[in-house]
Specification:
The protein is mainly beta. Helix content is 0%, strand content 56%.
Length: 99
């Protein structure tokens, strides 16, 4: 079983966006949530950092550090990715379209 917490649109209690850098969003395919997509976080050099499974509503979330990131989603209907530039603490939301 994956050790990652349930993926929801709401941030966990105690999350301080003045201190934490959170990369979050939704994975969609054909305009619908891509439930069960594997969402991978890659650092600025393309190295694998973490993975979560998107929720039934396509939501994903990573706690990361400031920097340049790639979020890649893999689903039975295809794959997609998005670049995220996290300049510091805060919430960085990105939608990933599977194509």
């Amino acid at each position: 079983m994956c050790g990652a917490p349930d993926q929801t649109a709401e941030l966990p209690p105690g999350t301080d966006l003045n201190k934490h850098t959170v990369l979050a969003g939704k994975v969609v395919s054909g305009g619908e949530p891509a439930a069960g997509a594997f969402v991978r976080l890659l650092d600025g050099t393309g190295e694998f950092t973490a993975e979560v499974v998107a929720s039934a509503s396509g939501d994903y979330r990573f706690f990361a550090g400031p920097g340049d990131w790639t979020v890649r989603a893999l689903h039975r209907s295809g794959s997609g990715e998005a670049a995220v530039a996290a300049g510091g603490p805060g919430l960085y939301q990105t939608e990933i379209t599977i194509g």
